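Technical note accompanying the year-one report. For the benefit of new consortium partners, we illustrate the data format agreed upon in the data management plan: each record pairs a sequence with a structure-token string. No post-processing was applied to the example shown here.
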Amino acid sequence: MSARSTPIRTAVVGAGGIAQGQHLPALRGLGDRVSIDAVVDMDGGRAMEVAAEWGAPRSFTAVADMLAEVQPDLVVVCTPPGSHTDAVIRSLDAGASVWCEKPPTLSLAEYDSILEHEGAAGPYASYVFQHRFGSAARTLRAQIAAGDLGAPLVGICHTLWYRDTAYYDVAWRGKWETEGGGPAMGHGIHQMDLLLSLLGDWTEISATMATLGREVETEDVSFAHVTFENGAIVSVVNSVLSPRETSYLRFDFADATVEVEHLYGYDNSHWRWTPAPHVGPDVVGAWAPTQNLASSHAVQLEELVSSLERGERPAASGHDGRRVLELVAGLYQSAFTGRRVQRSELHRDNPFYWSMNGSGQGSREPIKEAADA
């Protein structure tokens, strides 16, 4: 039950497609648990139009002005990656918790700089990784924790998507400075977060990447071999060159194989549990999820709001939100250097801590407020 007697006051930063298609409907779906109090966009006309459409009483063109006048409890950041850090830090410093679109930041250094602005009891910054919140993923996570399926041994985490050349006409896409990386950073990050939420932390990665079909600064495909602390070995592939698009994860345990194949979201029908021959088929019914919640912004937001109502740190924040950036940084370091990389290497003395392409050491100035996604 909520300990609050008033709605969580919410502001949305960035009024583009992801805000209108996902975040604002998810907020409205929570009814009187939240209020949509402001919309911010560099395009003042669009901010005003979207605010009116969704019943927000105020619109702004700058985050700082909104924070000073509205004093929200929660800020939802839906801008391009390069402007995330500035908006998140400003919001935390104003006392607002944050839910920010992926990727969280452009580097581990930026992520850690945000952590310094959180309080021990909040406000907190959390990030949009909706695939870990569907009922099937929750069920599998509980089964792994309980050891119901035996030891995890082998895994596959493949994000095989297709983005044409026109997709990269948007100025900030396909550039290290403004997107932080290619499909490993901007596309496969969702499946990799789901992978990590299930199997935990990794220890070593060996990777390669290439730019084969798109005129971009970053890679357009990468392959990685990842070893986890629990001993499991996982193949990770991220591509924007794959005409038959799919998102496919497979986990081979001692007693079962569990698979999910979908594209941009799943429900229980996309998952399959297959028992090992020595186990027998009668257990499958007992393994099946008892409810059917699709992976979505709405299901993650509901859990986030529940955490804030209880005064607790939400999932996909702190270390729980950081681990996928560690994996991406390790992937890029291995691909650039041609050697295996240990997770323990990703510290402040490593240039790949400061930027995903290892271009230099030392903090970079966050890119100031930019147009929405």
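Partners are asked to follow this layout when depositing records. The longest strand covers residues 241-253.
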